[in-house]
Amino acid sequence: MIDKVKPALRVSTDDPGILSEIEGLIAAARLDLIQAGVSPAKAEDDGDALIERAIVTYCKANFGYDNPEAVRFHDSYVMLKQHLCLYGDYKEVSTGEA
């Protein structure tokens, strides 16, 4: 996924610190999707275009310190996350077992 996120962030460096920050954002995006109700299997599916878009948008909202578009990207991510949580194919399936 990092190979898809780096160009979206306009990052071309292989600096370990920057790559570590991007990898952390990718992991945080996945966890945020899961906590919101997206199934873990879907949140880890790098081949799913909507999951990819959600992760990229999350990263664009949270990468760097001086990002004048951060709020716009955050709002876009939240809206996409809400749609994913409502769409049945992306929902965490409860087995009803306790």
Number of strands: 0
Unreliable residue stretches: none
Q: What shape does the CA trace take?
A: globular
Oligomer: single chain
Question: What would the average pLDDT be, to the nearest integer?
Answer: 92
Helical proportion?
55-70%
The structure class reads: mainly alpha
Radius of gyration: 14 Å
Question: How far apart are the first and last residues' alpha carbons, in Å?
Answer: 34 Å
Strand content: under 5%
Q: Main β-sheet, in a few words?
A: none
Secondary-structure element pattern, one letter each: HHHHH
Number of helices: 5
Please give a structural write-up:
The chain is 64% helix and 0% strand. The model has no long low-confidence stretch (mean pLDDT 92). 20% of the residues are buried. The chain has 5 helices and no strands. The protein starts with a helix and ends in a 12-residue tail after the last helix. The longest helix has 21 residues, at 16-36. It has 98 residues and is an all-alpha fold.
Properties at a glance:
98 residues, 5 helices
What's the topology here?
Layout (H helix, E strand, L loop, with lengths): L1 H7 L7 H21 L3 H4 L5 H14 L7 H17 L12
Helix pairs in contact: 2-4, 4-5
What can be said about this structure in brief?
The protein has 98 residues and is mainly α.
